[in-house]
């Protein structure tokens, strides 16, 4: 990594014969230009040409992209889909909430026709999901929980206590010991800290 | 003119500037913590405040979202106390609607909107004190706010106004020169590539003088880009000093 060098939008960094454009740059007429104000980063990753990118001190607003793991909160459910608000992209919080939809067919990978939305999510649950589409005009981001690591991670029972997952489709209240149905995520260790 | 002489015989203007001299420019970035990007700019006695929100989800009617790029929403307004006579309507009148459209076209040419599909970028600009060159102050302030928000751009957008008096082009008009009856040209430029983002002109001008006038305006825009460049670099160093501690 070369020493830190400031750059501003529109500044020409190098030619395409010397570098590969990364984030924060754009390509025009065979040259790579900066599109952000920040520091130039030149990284050799085993290839012939280094990747040049521009990084900022303060992180800019992220947008959920296809394939990103997002953390969301269920806002409403009906027999066909569940509506959620996306709160985090990966581990980065969003300033604005983005609306998403989890369809009944995308809740789990097996037995899609037997899925019941009321036994998978409840309003107020915190859900891990993956973005599969940016959606169309009516609905925004389409999300899926059809993986073992995706699903409900935090849920509260009717008594108000946070429930403990006991199996892939059940959660139990530690106070009243009643069981409720959820599509439970097998939470990875790195998410437990969050 | 009998009453007002915009350019004296010695080549000085009303406020003592030379013909191609800019007014003093002062600017600050990150003046608001609530906005994603914000900037305050003074061009002489013209003061502009710009805030940027986004990219965020489309608000309002979702039918106007574009599937391949972000939409830019601009609003221009003037404070009621910004002019010599108090304005009754800060925004929404015909002039500010036209100015909002001009700002929108200017930044659609500069911002890399295709990186944020189906989202929206809001730019709000307010004139706190008006003394000529309102459009150029708004464009320069909004450019700094977009850089502060971290929105990728092709280049700075630098805007400047220019006039033509006694066969001499004047750069960066003040209010007296704008209302003195001469030509007023407003130009927004991406200075490194030389692309013109917006061009607007009032009043009459012979075609032979247009090249001279546009050349003067482009030169003034490049001077402005140097000022904006130093403001951004200074802000970057301040931010890195803060995060380093």
From TrEMBL, chain A:
Keywords: Cytoplasm, Exosome, Nucleus, Phosphoprotein, RNA-binding, rRNA processing. SUPFAM superfamilies: Nucleic acid-binding proteins, Ribosomal L27 protein-like. It comes from the Eukaryota. GO terms for molecular function: RNA binding. One of its GO terms (biological process) is rRNA processing. It is found in: Cytoplasm; Nucleus, Nucleolus. Residues 65-146 form the S1 motif domain. InterPro entries: Csl4 (IPR039771), EXOSC1_C (IPR019495), Exosome_cplx_N_dom (IPR025721), NA-bd_OB-fold (IPR012340), S1_domain (IPR003029). Its main location: cytoplasm. GO terms for cellular component: cytoplasm; nuclear exosome (RNase complex); nucleolus. Belongs to the CSL4 family. Component of the RNA exosome core complex (Exo-9), composed of EXOSC1, EXOSC2, EXOSC3, EXOSC4, EXOSC5, EXOSC6, EXOSC7, EXOSC8 and EXOSC9; within the complex interacts with EXOSC6. The catalytically inactive RNA exosome core complex (Exo-9) associates with the catalytic subunit EXOSC10/RRP6. Exo-9 may associate with DIS3 to form the nucleolar exosome complex, or DIS3L to form the cytoplasmic exosome complex. Exo-9 is formed by a hexameric base ring consisting of the heterodimers EXOSC4-EXOSC9, EXOSC5-EXOSC8 and EXOSC6-EXOSC7, and a cap ring consisting of EXOSC1, EXOSC2 and EXOSC3. This is Exosome complex component CSL4. It comes from Danio rerio. The gene is exosc1.
Automatic annotation (TrEMBL), chain B:
This is Exosome complex component RRP41. GO terms for biological process: nuclear mRNA surveillance; poly(A)-dependent snoRNA 3'-end processing; rRNA catabolic process; rRNA processing; U4 snRNA 3'-end processing. Residues 21-152, 155-219 form the Exoribonuclease phosphorolytic domain. It comes from the Eukaryota. Keywords: Acetylation, Cytoplasm, Exonuclease, Exosome, Hydrolase, Nuclease, Nucleus, RNA-binding, rRNA processing. It holds the Pfam family RNase_PH. It is found in: Cytoplasm; Nucleus, Nucleolus; Nucleus, Nucleoplasm. One of its GO terms (cellular component) is nuclear exosome (RNase complex). Component of the RNA exosome core complex (Exo-9), composed of EXOSC1, EXOSC2, EXOSC3, EXOSC4, EXOSC5, EXOSC6, EXOSC7, EXOSC8 and EXOSC9; within the complex interacts with EXOSC2, EXOSC7 and EXOSC9. The catalytically inactive RNA exosome core complex (Exo-9) associates with the catalytic subunit EXOSC10/RRP6. Exo-9 may associate with DIS3 to form the nucleolar exosome complex, or DIS3L to form the cytoplasmic exosome complex. GO terms for molecular function: exonuclease activity; RNA binding.
């Amino acid at each position: 990594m070369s020493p830190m060098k400031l750059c501003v939008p529109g500044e020409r960094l190098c030619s395409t014969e010397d570098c590969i454009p990364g984030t924060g740059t754009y390509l025009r007429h065979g040259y790579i230009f900066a599109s952000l104000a920040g520091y130039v980063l030149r990284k050799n990753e085993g290839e012939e040409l280094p990747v040049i990118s521009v990084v900022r001190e303060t992180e800019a607003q992220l947008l959920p992209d296809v394939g990103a793991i997002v953390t969301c909160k269920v806002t409403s459910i009906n027999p066909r889909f569940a509506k959620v608000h996306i709160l985090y992209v990966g581990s980065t919080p969003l300033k604005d909430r983005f609306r998403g939809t989890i369809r009944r067919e995308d809740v789990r990978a097996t037995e899609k026709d037997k899925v019941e939305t009321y036994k998978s999510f409840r309003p107020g649950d915190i859900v891990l999901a993956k973005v599969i589409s940016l959606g169309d005009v009516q609905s925004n981001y389409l999300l899926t929980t059809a993986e073992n690591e995706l699903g409900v991670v935090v849920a509260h029972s009717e008594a108000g206590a946070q429930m403990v997952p006991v199996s892939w489709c059940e959660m139990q209240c530690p106070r009243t010991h009643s069981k409720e149905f959820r599509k439970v995520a097998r939470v990875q260790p790195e998410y437990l800290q969050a | 003119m009998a009453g007002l002489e915009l350019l004296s015989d010695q080549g000085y203007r009303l406020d003592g500037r030379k013909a191609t001299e800019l007014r003093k420019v002062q600017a600050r970035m990150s003046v608001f913590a609530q906005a994603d990007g914000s900037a305050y700019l003074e061009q002489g006695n013209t003061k502009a405040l710009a805030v940027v929100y986004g990219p965020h989800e489309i608000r309002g009617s979702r039918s106007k979202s574009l599937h391949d790029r972000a939409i830019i929403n601009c609003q221009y307004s003037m404070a009621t106390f910004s002019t010599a006579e108090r304005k009754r309507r800060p925004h929404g009148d015909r002039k500010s609607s036209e100015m909002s459209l001009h700002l929108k076209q200017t930044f659609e040419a500069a911002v890399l909107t295709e990186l944020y599909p189906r989202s929206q970028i809001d730019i709000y600009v307010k004139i706190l004190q008006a003394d000529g060159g309102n459009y150029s102050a708004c464009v320069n302030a909004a450019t700094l706010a977009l850089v502060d928000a971290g929105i990728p751009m092709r280049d700075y957008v630098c805007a400047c106004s220019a006039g033509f008096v006694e066969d001499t082009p004047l750069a960066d008009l003040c209010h007296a020169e704008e209302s003195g009856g001469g030509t007023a040209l407003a130009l927004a430029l991406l200075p490194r590539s030389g692309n013109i983002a917006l061009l607007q002109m009032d009043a009459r001008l012979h075609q032979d003088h247009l090249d001279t006038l546009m050349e003067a305006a482009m030169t003034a825009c490049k001077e402005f880009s140097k000022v904006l460049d130093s403001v951004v670099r200074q802000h970057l160093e301040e931010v890195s000093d803060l995060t380093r501690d």
